[in-house]
Every structure is written in C-alpha cells, then in structure tokens.
Design a protein that fits this description.
Length: 636
C-alpha cells in the first residue's frame, strides 16, 4: 500500500473486494509479508486463483463470475487461509471467511442530508447490543422517536467493527471495515444510519485506531502492522512511524474515509488517541483530520472528528495553521471529574485531583482544569491551557461507558447519588457552553448496571481476561474499603448474565421517579434549543461565580443578540440563599426549577421566585440542598 495522495472528489476504497459491472470481482490486497497470495472462493463451485504482485507490495486479481454475496479467504504462501484485511463483512465471525459486498447496493434515502454544525451536537452514546432487547442495528430504529422527543441531535455508537462472538464493548474489534455481523452487518448498519438521518439525527461512530483486539487479529500475517519498539496497555503499538508505516497509516486513514463515504457517518470519535504513538513529522491524527475534512467537503456534507484524549493537550484540537493536529473536538474529562467528585465526595485515583467548586468553575469557563498545574494523581504537572479554544470543541458528560463500568464497576450515577443530585447534574451539563453527551438510559435515571463483557472463543484468552478483571476488581474493593462489593460482587465478563444485566430496562420509563427525571431532561434540552444564549457554546460570554465555603455556583450565559440565562446551583446538603449577577434592569423569568413536583421534587420546599428584578432583594434565591434554578432574561 503506497502513500499516494487521494483525490477527495473521487475517493473510493481501493482495497478488499469490489464487484464489477460484468459480474466479476476485483480483489486487491496490500501484503508486503506475502511471497504469494491467492484468493479462495467458497461457493457452490469452489476455486482458488493466484493473484499478481504489483508495485508497492500490492496483490490483485479479477475473478470472473464472482458476485456480491460470495464468501472467500486469501491464502498466504500456499499455507495460511485468512480473512480479507479490508473485509466489508464477516458473516461467520472474526475467524471465518469474508463476504463480497457491493458498496453501491444499498438504496439511501438521505440525499438531502447535509449533516449538522458541530455546535448543534447534543450527543447520546449507546451500545448497540444492550440498548434494546434485540441488540441489533435495526433494533435501535424504533427507539429513534424516543431520542427525538428527548431532544438529542446526534447518536454516538460504541465501536461496531467485527469482534469475537456476540458480546463485547467493541474495543476488541479486529476487522475495522466490517460492521459487527451479530448486530446486522453492513446492511443493518446502513439502515440505521439512513433512519437516523430521516429523523434529523447525526451519527457519530466510535473507531479504534490505537490497537486491535487479540482474537481474530490476522493483519500481522499480511503486513508489519505493529511496531515492537513501543508498548501500549494492549501490547505492541500499531506501526505508524516505522518501516512500512506508510501502508499502515493509509489503512487507517482510508478506514476513516470509508465510514464517511460508504456509510454516511457524520463524525468519528477516535478512541484513546493518547495511545497512538507516532513521532513522524506529520502526526497520524493530523493526516486523518485533513483528509476527512477534505472528503466531507467534496461530498457536500458537514462531518467532524472528535478525539478521546486524557492528555489535556490543546494541540489535538488546535488548527493545523496554529501547529495543531486539527481535530474538531475532544472529550473533556475534567468536567466529569470535577462534578463527580463534588457529587460523590470520592477522592480515589484521578478524583484526588478534584473536589473543589473552583475546579468545576474552571472546567465550565475554560475547558481544561489541568492546564500545566501539578497533579497529585499523576505526580507531575499536567496539561496545557485551553482558554482560547471555543466551547464546541469540548464534549462533556456526567457519565459514559468508561466511567460507569471502569470507574464504579457497573454502578450508574443514579445508583450513587440522590434524585435531586441527578437533576442538578443534568442542569449543569445542559447549561455548560460545551457539547453535552448522555450515556444511554441516563435520561430516565436507569439503575441497571453497565458492566464489562466479552465473548472470546479462545478459552485461554477468555480465562486471562477473566482473571485480569478479577484482580482489578479485588484491588478496587480493597482501595475503596468496601465491606459489600459493588454491583453484588464480581461480574465475570465472559458470562452471558453479565451482558444481560447490562441491558436497559425500558419499562422504567412508565415508573416514578424515572418518568420525572425524563421530563426534566426533555425540558432542559428544549430550553437549550430555544435560547441562543444556552446553545451558542460561547465561553467568552459565560461567567461563573461560586462560594467555596457555602458550596453554591452560578453560571451566566449570554449571546450577542442580547439574550441571557442564569443557572443557580446549590451543591450542598443544606438550603442556601444564592445571589446571581444581573446587570440589566429587565426581569428574569424562572423557566426550570429542579425541585418542582413535576420533576419528582418534594412538596414542602417553596419554589424560588417566578421573576427576579435587578437591584431588588428578589434577586436572592433560596434553594434547598442540591437544587438548581434556571432563569431567562425577559427583555423590556
């Protein structure tokens, strides 16, 4: 695979199997480690055809009378039968044959879809296998009405690249181009994306470019996919800067363009980019960002790249002309950690670096809390300043798959904090000048755990994963001083029950207090959309005030059209009187109070004033513990 520049206006996937109009199929593979390569067709009339070696260690052949639907292996050096490294479909799993797919066969109905501006992204993260009882791509479609009514604008799917078995988070994928067969394969995935666009929902796909899963990983038989000079938590790093790295880089850059072009995805969430090791003059992330953006423009669509990074390194999201990698946004953990430490008072691990209202205020106002200051957890200075980056470059949350399953061994936030705290956290999330992300079920306070689960068919590997997880769990319980283990004890990741327990319980939508929590979220989304001052992501027009001793915090949001909003928050157990900053003489109207009975609030505590006016005592608001009140400026 040579490092040729692609023409974004005419880009198409050059490798794998592509059916031709005359009923034949072109097979093309980059395989510098192969001396000889053949394609073995598996159908009613099996055949094996030798491939010709071209320049750049590329093997190719056109096989007559092979159409979409045919299954095949490649045979390396007359010995190893292996799936296609660029397989579009693995209908029999990671070890089975690949299937020829016609990328143009699906009939799309989203021709008028042009994507969404990044600042409009209100993201809902879901895991396909546990989101619905069906656990498939098409099983998600009937729930899109729920997401529309909730108010989200983007659906983010945890990784869907083919992984072993039928139960996995997706980060053990070994076929980056093949949507998971047990979820519905390529056509099921396209139907879901098409339905999302019809519902006005953008699609964000979580992709993994920092490692490959351990089972069914055959790419190393074709090419030097790993660099043995670097190690990651998953083993040797991917080879992005060693010998033959150009082909490896092309493999992953093309993967990004593939999801954008053939599957119409609107954004990629790049998993753990801090684990991508690349000392090349041009970092892989910069290459992906540049080509992805160019291809989106050529297609006439808005599409985005979003990183997961714990580096707090502003280079990730700084434009290329400012010596950055040019990604459009990144997950920002500091908001989550700041708020979580205040809600739960935990101080273990990285939460030891948080726990002050000043941290939450800085996360809201600037982005990164750790911007070069000393970290107790890391035992060194950490991060760079993000104060100059716009708010839409930061995706923030109060829980996600990692924080639930790895941070608390399956316990969702609703199982850790009170109802009032949940609603307060929701108000802070939806009123911050960033892109909010919800994890599935959060909107109704789901109590079912989200656990770590796998279904490896390699029994030695399965046992290793099980024992490794058990040791981590024992250390967690010891560190926390637990007398009763969380989630009822150790959850075997290989057990079917672990997966089953992680499924959402949709019937809770009709039960109290889940119905009331859902109403609170819906109203917060509606208010954010209705008022430009809440949706503009403008950090420059955001002011945060707080009292560390009394544990209250206010957020004032403004817009250049003159509109303004004021969120008052009591982050203590005791009732507090909070004064907001109001420079206008106009009245401020109460639009949401988290203690309202319609949101499950207690009847005995009085509501805050329905209106506030400048320079009167009515601007002081009395709130019970863990309550929030949102006011909108009423122009005179």
């Amino acid at each position: 695979m040579t490092a040729v520049e692609t023409n974004p206006a005419t880009w198409q996937l050059q490798f794998g199997a592509r059916p031709l109009r005359d009923g034949s199929t072109l097979f093309r593979v980059w395989a510098p480690r192969a001396e000889r390569l053949a394609v073995k067709i598996i159908d009613a009339a099996p055949q094996s055809v030798m491939m010709e070696r071209r320049d750049g260690d590329i093997f190719e052949v056109v096989v007559p009378d092979v159409r979409a639907g045919a299954d095949y292996f490649f045979v390396i050096n007359d010995e190893k039968e292996r799936p296609d490294p660029v397989s579009r479909w693995q209908p029999r799993g990671v070890h089975g044959p690949s299937r020829v797919v016609d990328p143009d066969a699906f009939v799309w109905t989203d021709q008028s879809w042009r994507g969404r501006p990044l600042r409009e992204f209100l993201i809902y993260e879901l895991h396909t296998g546990t989101f619905t009882p069906a656990g498939t791509f098409e099983g998600v479609i009937p729930k899109l009405d729920h997401l529309q009514q909730l108010g989200v604008t983007a659906v983010e799917l945890m990784p869907v690249a083919e992984f072993p078995g039928g139960r996995n988070w997706g980060y053990d994928g070994t076929h980056p181009y093949a949507p998971q067969s047990t979820y519905g394969g390529p056509f099921g995935f396209k139907r879901l994306i098409d339905a999302c666009h019809a519902a006005g929902l953008a699609v964000v796909l979580d992709v993994v470019y920092n490692h490959l899963g351990p089972e069914g990983n055959y790419l190393g038989d074709y090419a030097p996919i790993f660099n043995h000079n670097y190690r990651t938590p998953w083993g040797d790093a991917l080879n992005f800067d060693g010998p033959d790295a150009d082909g490896v880089r092309r493999y992953f850059v093309d993967n990004a363009l593939y999801w954008l072009t053939e599957y119409h995805v609107d954004a990629l969430r790049l998993d753990a980019v801090h684990r991508i090791i690349d000392i090349s003059p041009r970092h892989l992330l910069a290459e992906i960002a540049t080509e992805f953006r160019a291809q989106a423009q050529a297609l006439g669509r808005a599409a985005w790249t979003i990183a997961e990074s714990d580096l707090n390194d502003v280079r990730v999201i700084r434009p290329a002309q400012a010596c950055g990698y040019g990604l459009d946004a990144q997950w920002s953990d500091d908001f989550h950690h700041s708020l979580h430490a205040l809600l739960t008072k935990t101080d273990r691990g990285y939460f030891a670096d948080f726990g002050q209202l000043a941290d939450l205020a800085k996360a809201i106002k600037e982005g990164f809390v750790y911007d070069g200051r000393a970290s107790v957890f890391r035992r060194k200075r950490h991060g760079t300043s993000s104060v100059e980056r716009p708010g839409e470059q930061f995706v923030v949350c109060i829980q996600n798959h990692d924080q639930i399953a790895n941070g608390y061994w399956g316990d969702r936030l609703a199982a850790l904090i009170t109802l009032e705290q949940q609603k307060l956290a929701a108000a802070l999330l939806l009123c911050a000048p960033n892109l909010p992300l919800l994890f599935m079920g959060q909107e109704w306070g789901e109590l079912a755990p989200f656990l770590y689960f796998t279904s490896h068919t390699d029994q030695d590997l399965a046992q290793g994963v099980r024992e490794g997880r058990r040791k981590e769990y024992a250390a967690f319980v010891k560190e926390e001083g637990e007398t009763v283990a969380p989630v009822g004890g150790f959850a075997d990741p290989q057990a079917v029950e672990t997966f089953a327990h992680s499924k959402l319980i949709w019937s809770r939508l009709a039960e109290s207090p889940h119905t009331e929590v859902l109403r609170c979220y819906r109203d917060l989304f509606a208010l954010r959309k209705a008022h430009s001052c809440l949706s503009n992501c403008d950090k420059a027009l955001t002011d945060v005030s707080f009292d560390e001793a009394r544990r209250w915090l206010t957020i004032r949001r403004g817009d250049r059209d003159g509109s303004a909003a004021l969120l008052l928050c009591n982050l203590s157990d005791e009732a507090q009187t909070i004064s907001g900053s109001m420079s206008q003489a106009d009245a401020w109207r109460l639009v949401l109070w988290s203690g309202d009975q319609v949101y499950g609030g207690a009847a005995q505590f009085p509501a805050p004033p329905a209106q506030l006016e400048h320079a009167t005592e009515r601007q002081a608001v009395h709130l019970a513990g863990w309550q929030a009140a949102l006011y909108i400026l009423e122009r005179a």
